[in-house]
Design a protein that fits this description.
There is one protein chain. The protein is of the alpha+beta class. It has two domains: 3-86, Arc Repressor Mutant, subunit A, CATH 1.10.10; 95-138, Ferric-uptake regulator, C-terminal dimerisarion domain (Dna Ligase, domain 1, 2-Layer Sandwich). It is 44% helix and 17% strand. The strands form two sheets. The protein has a three-stranded mixed sheet, with no helix packed on it. A two-stranded antiparallel sheet has the order 1-2. A hairpin with a 5-residue loop joins strand 3 and strand 4. Helix 2 crosses helix 3 (41-51). Pfam families: FUR. Homodimer. Keywords: Cytoplasm, DNA-binding, Iron, Metal-binding, Repressor, Transcription, Transcription regulation, Zinc.
């Protein structure tokens, strides 16, 4: 989906939820959407400073926190980076990411079978899953 289409969708989602997509949050959203894969907060901060020289680390982290809570982006804990979710209108789904250790490409996949298996094992342990991001590292098809 084109970046402007994603932005329009995000604006609509925020309006429906009563969430405020401020100008800074929108700028960070657009910067993230321009990346094909994962990007770190400080790289985003440098890009944001080209637009808003007064931007500080707290600015970017607050914006990323908001975008993450809305389901627009996913944080990749293992590499401390963020990636755009291109189907966030339905983003109550479990997140499963394939991360290429060679080129850095990140692909979001969905496997209901995997989710069911994990939830079944969690239920058997009396564990209630509230949020799920599964990160798998390896080598993508292009790098193989």
């Amino acid at each position: 989906m084109a970046i402007q289409g994603l932005l329009l969708q995000a604006q609509q989602v925020c309006q429906q939820r009563g969430a405020r997509l401020t100008k800074i949050r929108e700028q960070v959203f657009l910067l993230l959407a321009e990346h094909d894969g994962a990007v770190g907060a400080y790289e985003l901060l440098e890009e944001l400073k080209a637009i808003d020289p007064a931007a500080k680390p707290a600015t970017i982290y607050r914006a990323l926190d908001f975008l993450s809570k809305q389901g627009f982006v996913h944080k990749i804990e293992s590499i401390n980076a963020f990636v755009m979710c291109h189907h966030f209108s339905e983003c109550n789904h479990p997140v499963q990411l394939l991360i290429c250790d060679e080129c850095g490409h990140v692909e979001e996949i969905q496997s209901n079978n995997f989710d069911l298996a994990l939830r079944s094992m969690a239920d058997a342990s009396g564990f209630n899953i509230s949020h799920q991001i599964v990160e798998a590292h390896g080598t993508c098809q292009a790098c193989n």
